[in-house]
TrEMBL record, chains A, B, C, D:
Matches recorded under InterPro entries: Aldolase_class_II_sugar_metab (IPR050197), Aldolase_II/adducin_N (IPR001303), Aldolase_II/adducin_N_sf (IPR036409)
A cellular component term, taken from the record's GO annotations: cytosol
Organism per entry: Amycolatopsis balhimycina DSM 5908
Cofactor(s), by name: Zn(2+)
Domain Class II aldolase/adducin N-terminal: 8-185
Top-rank taxon: Bacteria
Protein name, as recorded: L-ribulose-5-phosphate 4-epimerase
Length: 220, 220, 220, 220
């Protein structure tokens, strides 16, 4: 069996999606790219998260050919592969229909930097991608065209995709995009909101990405 | 005891309703039709979900006569039976008052195909049925008249009914109608929403129902 | 120790409040009246629900005098006692600040019979009581004056009180008033709502209270 | 290892934040001041709550110098220290981005005393602090300037800080500010709200803080 360790990690990450309240029934998926072989490990199509085992994960090459696995790969596989082919820095892609992020996507709205948590985590407005058909590489193209430096993008009338240099980074983006979308949603019903000034966005993002979690974190 | 295996399945499915957050206290019910005998196994009336055992399930014939069981059948039994008598393709019926679906039902609104998840799962607008009295077959008649090809219908000022070729299919529809109602509800407060074009609805539904979960799922 | 069985039941019911999501920290309380002695068993004041033991429950007479117990009784004790003194049919009183019911109370709104679940459970509009000071018997007086035949009342800018012929009935009312308040809240944001006609309210309530949960439940 | 007991308490309190639904991923932090040495024990920066052990806690002096601990202290450490240096009565500080409190903060709104639970717990409007940069002592200064007698303050476009004479008091304020923000949020969508009269606010707060939880609680 190819890539047993990555199968294990991808299986675990997929099962974290329902645990984090980001997916319902079989929607949503996690993939990872193996840096050595270039192969991609992804969730099988249409399976319940709680039943997934590492053995169920599907290994595909960048052309979408299944090179190891008994099940069909996620119907979003082509979108994941397009991102890997065009973004060398991305090692993991996650897709969900999490409620609040998808609500913004369905209303056709991006999420401006209304509070420090968005500046910290995303460093910029969370962008809205155009509507793109599911199944082919249209979604992947729109992600690459519109995601910019954000680790998350809202895909119009569909859901959310996140990317990261690791599974953990992509998972964090998936959790945090829903968390900030939820807070901004509730704030938006209370009155008009104002984005942070650009200098504050930059200062927060710089502190968060360079010093947070280090031994000098409190010196900022 | 008649139909022990179906009693077990119906009991399990009823207990999944509170686990999925679709029901409160004793509201809601699941039934299944036995294809061989034509008998229907349904939840007893007014019992707490967590106390249900397979033995508590009630077996009725299509006229509503209890043929096995010590408890009274659900007060929605006549509605279930009317659907079975008039829809050969239906093997399971589920009724809930799940919050968001019932909110649309209470406001007298159907749920248009505002996003891909609705196209995937329902293939069309989730219809609104007219108000119908509880207890007799008025609800069953309105379901058959108005549900069309959707697996779910919102019943005005009441709740939601779903149907399926299996308990799992009806349960999936009950879970997904609440999930998409929730997302659309949040989207609806952000601004005006636009349904997907008919061609996109058809393309998504065709992909989802014909290729999703198969070994060629990624080829679409 | 007086009334060991009722202490056990009141303790269990109090601990069900956080389990049902109806209370936060120490707010909320359950009491029961012993039909033989007329004594009332109630939650102690200011204790965390998860720490409660039957021994912590406080036994008071109808004048509020502690006749057994080491802790002070709930600060809502006088309200409970006034209800017991003036409503012979009530054996249990419950008070919560559950989110949606309290939102209607805070906005100064009753909850009309917008859907069948309210007709079933309450049989009428869920009334709004005037603001009344906490601590004395003003709340009890307002409950008796305004609750009518409903098992629940919203107390303006405060929370919700429910009554029942048993702890289970009062607890069911506390769970269901929050459940219907939640659904009506979501419905209210979608557009104007219309109460059910009086004849439908009566028919639903009659069916629910007389035949629901019995062996002839499906005959209605 | 310095202050083993306080490390244990601070670790436990930090882990209660996700359990109470107040934080997501690594956001949020709890600290305590040792009354004898004046040292402060605080959560390390950027660590997942579920992985925290007492040994991970960081001990700093009032100048922010790490005196014991292998990890970097929370990026909010300077804010906590400023409060300790300027409020002798405060022994614990907590920071979260809890959804509803942060929604009010993001919309730039304080929370008036619309219901008794706010009068009980806070005794006054929950104030809104001006926007202040994260990392230095600007947040601490704004907390001290604007929190008044409330145990909680909403920091504009950021989140919430609470203070207390004990970890439990600060934690209770963090739980209750989110609970009342949630209820007020839902009430605010139903129509215009009116604060309680000043005399009722005072009466409720006096009863709650002086008699609640005591053996004479029911005498009020």
């Amino acid at each position: 069996m190819l890539l047993p360790e990555l199968r294990e990690q991808v299986c675990t990450a997929n099962r974290q999606l329902p645990a984090a309240g980001l997916v319902t029934w079989t929607s949503g998926n996690v993939s990872v790219r193996d840096p050595e072989t270039g192969l991609v490990v992804i969730k099988p199509s249409g399976r319940m998260f709680d039943d997934l085992t590492p053995n169920d994960m599907v290994v595909v090459d960048l052309d979408g050919k299944v090179v190891d696995g008994d099940l069909g790969p996620s119907s979003d596989t082509a979108a994941h592969l397009y991102v890997y082919a065009n973004r060398d820095d991305v090692r993991s892609v996650i897709h969900t229909h999490s409620t609040f992020a998808t609500a913004f996507a369905t209303a056709g709205l991006s999420i401006p930097v209304y509070m420090t948590a968005i500046a910290d985590e995303f460093g910029c407005e969370i962008p809205l991608g155009d509507y793109a058909a599911i199944g082919g590489d249209a979604i992947g193209k729109e992600i690459c065209r519109s995601i910019g430096r954000s680790p998350a993008i809202l895909m119009k009338q569909h859901g959310v995709f996140t990317i990261g240099a690791s599974i953990k980074a992509a998972l964090k983006a998936a959790v945090m995009v829903e968390d900030v979308a939820k807070t901004v949603w509730y704030a938006s019903q209370l009155g008009p909101l104002t984005p942070l000034p650009e200098a504050e966005i930059t200062a927060n993002h710089e502190r968060y990405t360079h010093r947070y979690g280090t031994a000098t974190a409190s010196q900022g």
